[in-house]
Design brief:
Layout (H helix, E strand, L loop, with lengths): L1 E3 L2 E7 L6 H9 L3 E7 L20 E3 L3 H11 L7 H12 L2 H12 L5 H27 L15 H15 L12 H12 L4 H14 L14
Parallel strand pairs: 2-3
Antiparallel strand pairs: 1-2, 1-4
Helix pairs in contact: 1-2, 1-6, 3-6, 4-5, 4-6, 6-7
């Protein structure tokens, strides 16, 4: 990602993947930004690029989705109001990474070899079920389940959970998040989806998630090599 006088470019594969929370936050910020998509065939020529300061220009260039996400979340006060709130939000968000990554990989290879897909599905379901057990307890400790992870306002953890639940539904993997198993997570989802500053994001994201539900159809990207 590059940031120049609050103009942003988010460069990622032509896929939602691990950059999706960053896209949501950029919408939330109502930022001036551009989504730069690369094909997987282009990746070998790009992966050795090292981010820098822009050769003295007032440009911030960052790599790694986690660093970018936290930077953007700070711009929108989506990491709480205090250091204590920030570390709690970071910890809850970090505990979602495995589930998000496994879900993204399953969606990416949807329609592939049956044995491989069964393995990916099982890995995702196990991660999601463990996430639900832990996070339902976490959410209950925050006001008895008020629709937020920390305090009474939106955070990057709230947004990321909503993304996971929304993506899971597009490929029929929402069972771990059923209302009877995850009632407090549903409150978080509902609050994030209803947030007025995320309306444009969800309108775009739902359509992209549906398009992606058929798996990636271009380029030479072999599951066995991952």
């Amino acid at each position: 990602m590059t940031a120049d006088a609050k103009r942003y470019e988010l460069a990622y594969f032509a896929w939602s993947g691990m950059a999706e929370p960053c896209r949501a936050i950029l919408h939330y910020l109502e930022a001036d930004w551009k989504d730069v998509s690369y094909s997987f065939d282009q990746w070998p020529g790009l992966k050795d690029h090292q981010p820098g300061s822009g050769n003295g220009e007032p440009t911030l260039e960052l790599a790694e989705s986690t660093a970018i996400e936290r930077y953007l979340a700070n711009q929108g006060a989506l990491r709480g109001a205090t250091d204590a709130e920030a570390v709690l939000i970071d910890s809850y968000r970090a505990s979602m990474t495995d589930t998000l990554a496994r879900l993204s990989k399953y969606r990416f290879f949807l329609g592939g070899d049956d044995e491989q897909m069964a393995e990916l599905r099982a890995g995702y379901l196990k991660a999601a079920e463990e996430l639900v057990k832990f996070h339902e307890r976490v959410l209950a400790r925050n006001g008895g389940g008020n629709g937020h992870y920390v305090g009474d306002r939106l955070s990057v953890a709230d947004v990321t959970l909503a993304i996971i639940m929304g993506q899971a539904e597009t490929v029929g993997l929402e069972a771990p998040f059923a209302a009877e198993a995850a009632p407090l997570m549903h409150k978080v989802y509902d609050a994030a989806v209803a947030h007025p500053r995320l309306a444009a994001y969800w309108a775009d994201a739902r359509e992209r998630f549906r398009r992606e539900s058929g798996g990636y159809q271009g380029g030479d990207f072999d599951l066995k090599k991952r």
